[in-house]
Amino acid sequence: QLQLVVSGGDLVQPGGPLRLSCAASGITLDYYAIGWFRQAPGKEREGVSCISDTDGSTYYADSVKGRFTISRDNAMNTAYLQMNSLKPEDTAVYYCAAGEYTVDWESPTEYDYWGQGTQVTVSS
Predict the structure, then answer these.
(1) β partners of residue 4
(2) Closest by Cα among 63, 59, 43, 39 to 103
(3) DSSP string computed for 104-115
(4) Which long-range contacts does 57-64 make (Cβ < 8 Å, 24+ apart)?
(5) Which of 50, 52, 59, 108 could disulfide-pair with 35, CB 3.0 to 4.6 Å?
């Protein structure tokens, strides 16, 4: 059974850190690009970051560059999104996704499998 399980969402104060995890079962993440997306109420789902399966290249939305770091541990079949210096505008449901032939990393349609999402709320 193919499954991506997202965890780590929480309520955090502005400026604080949070790490999200995306654990896979039923697929081997080695062969997939991993993307992180988020969706705030009333807004479209947007790409936050992506890490390729070929050379480990990483990509970030301008809004999170320098604050978020994506990584993957193929041995653990898990990907991570380390989020630092969080801002209220980072509040959203965060999703991870796996894509086998991902070209446009910011497009949700490029991904084959999706996790269930986890709520991140940044507020004092």
Answers:
(1) 24
(2) 59
(3) STT-GGG-SEE-
(4) 59/105, 59/106, 61/106, 63/89, 64/90
(5) 50
- What average pLDDT does range 73-96 have in this prediction? 97
Amino acid at 59: Y
Predicted confidence at residue 45, as pLDDT, reads: 97
- With a cut of 90, say whether residue 2 has pLDDT above it: no
Helices (H), the chain: none
**Torsion angle (degrees, nearest 10) of CA 20, 46, 119, 4:** -50
Beta bridge partners of 23: 5, 78
**For 53-77, b where at least 16 C-beta lie within 10 A, e where not — what string?**
beeeeebbbeebeeebbbebeeeeb
Residue found by looking up tokens 């789902």 in the block: 45
Per-residue pLDDT, averaged over 11-29, amounts to 95
Q: What is the pLDDT of residue 102?
A: 87
- Residue 32 per-residue DSSP state: S
**pLDDT at 52 (0 to 100):** 94
